[in-house]
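Notes from hallway chat w/ T.B., transcribed later so I don't forget. T.B. wanted the structure written out for a chain they're using in a teaching module, and asked if we could keep both sequence and structure tokens in one place. Agreed to drop them here.
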Amino acid sequence: MSDAQEPYWSWEMVVKRRRCRACGRLFQPCAKVPNQQYCPERSCQKERKRRWQKNKLAEDPAYKANQRDAQKRWRAKHPDYWRDYRERRPDYERRNRELQRERNRRRGERASPIAKMDALERESLIVSGRYQLVPLEGTGIAKMDAINVRIDVIPRC
């Protein structure tokens, strides 16, 4: 076989193939990426990035703080995003409620219920003032950081 005519496959190609850590299929790694663990499929590359970011958030406090600040700035610029999103997509809201019921069922008796905005039906015992909100341990739903807030009680009319 001449140099101009390359074989369709070779044993060398088979030996160098790797199994993708996302989809499990065999793939030929790129020569420029010697430790490539994920195939070039778009979904696998998204999974690679998702795992990298999850690990980075867990191990790098500066990265985590930067991400939190960026999200806070975005929410400040788009305060009505989620309200508008739910209004445009009633199926999203319905599905979210179904999934929350399932999460509540799996949590069972081991945790207190999730708070709702209008949960208090009797007169509030909360006094206006400054409070520090600290998440309860073990619920898996509250945020990790304590938050300083000012609460002004608005009496019902």
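Follow-up for T.B.: The longest strand covers residues 129-133. Might be a good example for the class.
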